Amino acid sequence: MEKQQMEKELLVVLEQFENLLNNKLKSNYMPILKNTFLPCLVSAHSEISNIDELFMHEITRANIVQAGIQYVDTTKKVKSVAAVKKYLTAVAEFHKRVIIKKYPNTPLNSINEFQGLFEEIVEKSQKNLMPKISHDQIKDKEAKFILEYLSSLSKNSYKEQVICIVFELMLLYGFKIGTIASLKKDDFSQERRTLMISLPSLHSPIKLELPYKLSKQISDLEANYMNESELLFLADDNKKLDSSYFFEFLKNLEKDTTKTLGTQCTHLTLSGLSKYAVTNMFIKGMNPITISNISGMKDVDLKNCQQAANRVLNSDNFGNSYINSNFRGMEFYEYLN
């Protein structure tokens, strides 16, 4: 009886979470939570009579790991480590959007970052999962075409304005969509033309000085489309931005880029835009810690961008222009100029 009651209460909470999601996120998160995560919780805590006790006192880090292992080992379609990240993202969103609001002191708060459980789940799984496939960055000619393409848009709609701003932020600073989606109106200062970035890895926020054109675009968006949300950018349905919001636009952009440049452009993804910016930061001599703090990029992706930058720096046709551009950036050079 206690088990049936627990299942019933968990399904009610899960339905509340489902109502907060768009269709793409529902298809990504709900099967994982409903078919694996919640049943694992019920099985591990069968002696508990209600979910209040579960989420306020009993749920543990080990429950998250064990459910993740079961998801990997018992789901036939799971073939790569990407599925582990997908599982952890689903649980993290469930925690952030529902659990922490109903149970502010839940033991799950002790988990600083759910993705930090990734390695443990992969190591303890019985499957030999395929490694992550890293999407390539876009090239200079593709970045130039994208900027021209964005400039040619009418920008009469809210969505086109948001897309232009988001893509430019990614191409300049290497932001992930999650970072942009979490930006608040208070993070942007129209007067100072600054954008404040706060990430879990940062001890204090970083204030970035925006180019005039980009700052004006954000100011115009705020002026033309006022809303009561604290977030700086929203999807058309007034929900938080996610990658699905850009899917159709990216699809059309990929076709036009391929047609215009004459080469297949299958790596035109949000990740590809961010990696382009991060590689440019490495080329300009910024250190990896600073780059990671600004972009939020880590591990394999950050290393791949650094290697891409090294290939550019070591190329024969880059040396002289790179050397001279650095000298031109020196204050003493300007004094002699």
Sum up the structure in keywords.
337 residues, mainly alpha, hpI Integrase, Chain A, 2 domains, 3-stranded antiparallel sheet, 16 helices, 3 strands
> Terminal Cα separation, in Å?
84 Å
The CATH class of the largest domain: Mainly Alpha
Low-confidence stretches: none
How would a crystallographer describe the biggest sheet? 3 strands, antiparallel
Q: Determine Rg (CA atoms, Å).
A: 23 Å
Kindly identify the CATH topology of the largest domain: hpI Integrase, Chain A
Q: Could you say what the CATH architecture of the largest domain is? A: Orthogonal Bundle
- Strand composition percent: under 5%
Fraction of residues in helix: 55-70%
Extended strand count: 3
Question: Oligomer, anyone?
Answer: single chain
Q: Into how many domains do the coordinates divide?
A: 2
Sketch the topology as an H/E string, one letter per element. Answer: HHHHHHHHHEEEHHHHHHH
Keywords: DNA recombination
GO molecular function, one term: DNA binding
InterPro entries: DNA_brk_join_enz, Integrase-like_cat_sf
